[in-house]
Amino acid sequence: MARKPGKKDLTERQGHLLKVLVERYIEDGQPVGSRRLSEESGLKLSPATIRNVMADLEKLGYLHSPHTSAGRMPTGQAYRMFVDTLVKFNPPEPEEIDSLRRKLEEGAEGSGGKALVRSASSLLSGITHLAGVVTVPRRNHSNLRQIEFLPLSGNRVLSILVVNNREVQNRVLTLDRAYTESELRSAANYLNEQFAGRDIAQVREQLLDDLQRARDSMHNMMSSALTLGRQLFDRKEQQEDFVLAGETNLMDFAELSDVEKLRRLFEAFAEKRDFLHLLDHTLSGEGVQIFIGEESGYDLLDACSVVTSPYTIDDEVVGMLGVIGPTRMAYQRVIPIVDITAKLLGRALNSRS
Amino acid sequence: MARKPGKKDLTERQGHLLKVLVERYIEDGQPVGSRRLSEESGLKLSPATIRNVMADLEKLGYLHSPHTSAGRMPTGQAYRMFVDTLVKFNPPEPEEIDSLRRKLEEGAEGSGGKALVRSASSLLSGITHLAGVVTVPRRNHSNLRQIEFLPLSGNRVLSILVVNNREVQNRVLTLDRAYTESELRSAANYLNEQFAGRDIAQVREQLLDDLQRARDSMHNMMSSALTLGRQLFDRKEQQEDFVLAGETNLMDFAELSDVEKLRRLFEAFAEKRDFLHLLDHTLSGEGVQIFIGEESGYDLLDACSVVTSPYTIDDEVVGMLGVIGPTRMAYQRVIPIVDITAKLLGRALNSRS
DNA sequence: CTTGGCACTCCACTCCAGCGAGTGCTAATA
DNA sequence: TATTAGCACTCGCTGGAGTGGAGTGCCAAG
């Protein structure tokens, strides 16, 4: 991929100084000046020299200053360079991993998968002091286990679907006429015989097929079964969802102290819609992905970075998890945490299914 | 109930002026001065006279000023007096009610009761520009309709409960040994025969009884049924929950513009725990209840008021709903809205069950 | 009891000076 | 040629002084 004009590789010295500057800025959020950098860079260079280097880095698009007489702050490009090539990650200690695993499972005593998702989300937000987000797992291939119908008042029927051996979905269907209990029972029996153990997508397809092919030549019982089944499976995909935790952590950051900005951000969280879109993109990728500032494409997140990783059940990617924080988050700490949490969550979900 | 010292009834003039002052303060949040009040009170009184009255009201605890040369603001006591005796509510127009009803049901196309709750919550927040809150309905008497067990891997069993003809609860039970599919089927049959149509609380009691009485003299099948049943019903009450909407509206109010306060408030919302406690209290009451400032007993809500009303299904109180906003909210508008929304929600839930 | 008058208080705003931090540039140096 | 010291300059921040306005409390007259 062609870089933008003027983005030649940095010299080793430039790289080192950029790294130190980013680290310092991440620590306290204050613009870093030449004097400070010269003292803490480890290189024996005077502030004047540092200033020359900084001026170069600014020309290259890595730094900018809020005003003439302040120090310099990293741009998005600098963070990008930082995470891509400059920073080195300490792989977490085994005992640290173990402690994470325990916390993850402690927080999810309710044995549902949803409890684990919530636990993962608050675990992420708790240890990073950022906002944690985890999408609810969603398998492409859902195995239908059992169907049950119960009549309600009017023309309505409560349908219960057991899927993937552990999830239960239920919906109220409103039908064109009232069905008797025995009709419903035989319909359920028929559908179970035909479709139990099959993939939901397949089931949907075949139902449409059957209904098409045999419109009215059918046995009465089968016909009602098909009618019911069609309604049941015709629903739009159950919408995806995610669990957010520790949003309030974001209030601490000066970058977001403007109440108006905060408000819009929190509204977006509540809406979920826009945000899901962003998370969806990351499902196709592999490993930890990082969106710095504007890279996310949402102007609400201009001052934020998003670090995500997909997680898997049975080697199938079923969701993603991550954190949201200010661009000046502690990447070297956050990235390994997101990575390991994704793996732990996948493993925990596996062991429960 | 004895009033606090010095709280004699107000004269008509004092009452009127207090009312106007509160109204003005609610409108723009600025302390109200004697000049303004004299112009807009409708009484032909000079600012000097108004000042005398205001000084009296201050002595009585209804007013206070932030500093010498500012106007005066109502105290909690003044709001209390305002809502109790001063304000008169315009009963909402029939067409207004109808529009509310339509909005409530539009927002709840997913036919579950939860969808209605969510819709009510965002309806409340939408039209009041405050935070809306609705607890999920919870009946004291839950009618058990059907039980089903499905074996999972290991010693675990997925149990499905249909309750009140429309709600489905499911839990994963972890048992002392593996049960075969036929064992589970007969257990379910047994429990259904015995308990279908009965109240859950009764079921729980009787299960314990049976288990106690007939420990090991029992038929094998019944014994496993009882074991399963006991685990199933032994769980603590499913925790109550509420749905919050439009929290971000609260960010607009100057009273809460302090980010630190906001943060603690939002954290409390996310925790839910403390907050549920407050809502629980209101379940016993009747009609609209109002907590002004410190009356709620939560110091986080010192600058807030909470207006709530219980709602009913089949004349049984099953939950409450309301709004949270700054103490200077437009009570005369908000109170009727909360009242009518509670009635509409109850009605809507009824028609779907 | 009401009112006009008056002195007083306090906040909010503006203006200004002084400071400290940091820069860019230039000229000297290794 | 790369580095450094020196220096003038810029800019934001802080604190104090000054001003205007809003509102009060009190008093004495109607």
How much helix, percentage-wise, in residues of chain A? Answer: 40-55%
| Uncertain segments of chain A | 1-6
CATH superfamily of the largest domain in chain A: GAF domain
Q: Largest interface here, residues on each chain?
A: A-B, 32 and 32 residues
- What order do the helices and strands of chain A follow? HHHEEHHHEEEEHHHEHHEEEH
Query: Which structural category do the helix and sheet elements of chain A fall into?
Result: alpha+beta
The number of distinct structural domains of chain A comes to 3
Strand ordering within the main sheet of chain A? 7-3-10-9-8
**Which architecture of the largest domain in chain A would the CATH scheme give at its second level?**
2-Layer Sandwich
Determine the CATH topology of the largest domain in chain A: Beta-Lactamase
The number of distinct helices of chain A, counting runs of at least 4 residues, comes to 12
State mean pLDDT of chain A (0 to 100 scale). Answer: 86
Return the CATH class of the largest domain in chain A: Alpha Beta
CA(first)-CA(last) distance of chain A = 42 Å
Radius of gyration of chain A: 27 Å
What is the subunit organization of this protein?
Answer: homodimer
